[in-house]
């Protein structure tokens, strides 16, 4: 897949190329830069229209170098399309709070470009540009956009993970969001769970920083990184698939699950790293039966930190794609092989 800058393709910019193609100009090349990417400003959390969201009480973040994922409610005034009336509109925004106190919002200019039903190549690209920040840093976050071609990163606002490169060039990786209630996960203590444990398999995507860019693990219809959790044994295993840009794969070695958190070791090439992560997302109850139709913890995210080799540090996130709460075995083989 050709690596082009991710900029929203506005109709006025796209129209000349579409018309040329329809007129027989099949060799018309798309522009390398589709629209100017704005500089990212820090959210002013002291402004009167910005309030910290109550959900932050249940947010958990993991990082390799500090910072946190947080949620805010931002109220703006908008003019009615039918009259001269002005009214307040409140939207929830998610940010990464840097160790030095900046608040960078996740948006369509710092999220990865994803394939959709009309994209010839359904593979995720493995090199990504980052959005510049006002103070000279760089920022990237996954994911404010997803499609039916990338269900493994469709987090439904459960989770965000990404990278911030400080103005001095220091790389920070993070993952965070609203952590799952362990009582409503597989094997949880809630009466509605009925003691069921079993297994679950997550499709995941991982990132690293390289220079002033982000590089990512392999994600295609035929090659998907998978992490499997066996709730019978409290173990987690799997592999984040490497490639020429990302480097060596990350293979989970000895990772233990305790409630809604997990930790342990992983390997990448000859290096051993420390795994730290969590399960995110609430359970849901069927409107018709009143019973649980989705266990908590549908999303997973974390960090693998390699002391002495920060180039290998990896942030990852994923979505549950297969589940068998009645499974009695002790293995970590993916359910959807």
Q: Find the structural class using helix and strand composition.
A: mainly beta
> Which percent band covers the strand fraction?
35-45%
CATH class: Mainly Beta
Distance between the termini: 26 Å
**Share of helix, binned:** under 10%
β-strand number: 21
Give me the side-by-side strand order of the main sheet. Answer: 11-13-14-15-16-17-20-21
Uncertain parts: 1-21
Assembly classification: single chain
Query: Count of DSSP helices?
Result: 1
H-E order: HEEEEEEEEEEEEEEEEEEEEE
Radius of gyration: 21 Å
Q: What count of structural domains?
A: 1
CATH architecture: Beta Barrel
Provide the residue-averaged pLDDT.
89
Walk me through what this model shows:
This protein is mostly beta strands and 337 residues long. The protein has one domain (40-324): Porin (Beta Barrel), CATH 2.40.160.90. Helix content is 4%, strand content 41%. The chain is built from 1 helix and 21 strands. The strands form 4 sheets. It has an 8-stranded antiparallel barrel with strand order 11-13-14-15-16-17-20-21. A 5-stranded antiparallel sheet has the order 2-10-9-8-7, with no helix packed on it. A hairpin with a 2-residue loop joins strand 16 (261-268) and strand 17 (271-280). The radius of gyration is 21 Å and the shape is globular. The protein starts with 10 loop residues before the first helix and ends in a 13-residue tail after the last strand. It is found in: Cell outer membrane.
């Amino acid at each position: 897949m050709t690596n082009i800058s991710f900029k929203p393709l506005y109709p006025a910019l796209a129209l000349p190329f579409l018309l040329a193609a329809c007129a027989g100009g099949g060799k018309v090349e798309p522009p390398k830069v589709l629209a100017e990417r704005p500089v990212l400003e820090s959210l002013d959390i002291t402004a009167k229209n910005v309030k910290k969201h109550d959900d932050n009480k249940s947010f958990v973040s993991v990082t390799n170098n500090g910072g946190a994922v947080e949620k805010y409610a931002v109220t703006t005034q908008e003019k009615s399309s039918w009259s001269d009336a002005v009214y307040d509109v409140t939207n929830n925004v998610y940010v990464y709070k840097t160790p030095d106190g900046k608040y960078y919002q996740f948006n369509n200019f710092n999220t990865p470009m994803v394939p959709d039903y009309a994209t010839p190549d359904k593979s995720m690209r493995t090199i990504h540009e980052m959005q510049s920040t006002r103070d000279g840093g760089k920022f990237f976050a996954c994911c404010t956009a997803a499609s039916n071609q990338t269900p493994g990163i469709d987090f439904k606002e459960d989770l965000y993970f990404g990278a911030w490169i400080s103005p001095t060039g220091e790389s920070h990786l993070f993952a965070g969001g609203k952590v799952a209630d362990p009582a409503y996960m597989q094997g949880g203590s809630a009466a509605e769970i009925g003691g069921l444990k079993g297994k679950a398999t997550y499709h995941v995507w991982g990132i690293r920083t390289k220079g002033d860019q982000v590089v990512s693990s392999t994600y295609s219809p035929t090659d998907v990184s998978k992490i499997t959790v066996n709730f019978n044994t409290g173990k987690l295993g799997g592999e984040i698939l490497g490639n020429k840009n990302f480097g060596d794969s990350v293979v989970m070695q000895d990772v233990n699950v305790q409630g809604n958190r997990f930790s342990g070791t992983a390997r990448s090439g000859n290096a051993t790293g420390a795994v730290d992560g969590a399960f995110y997302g609430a359970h849901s109850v069927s409107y018709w039966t009143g019973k649980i139709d989705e266990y908590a913890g549908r999303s997973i995210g974390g960090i693998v930190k390699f002391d002495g080799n920060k180039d290998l540090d990896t942030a990852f996130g994923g979505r549950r794609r297969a589940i068998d709460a009645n499974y009695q075995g002790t293995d970590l083989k993916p359910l959807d092989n």
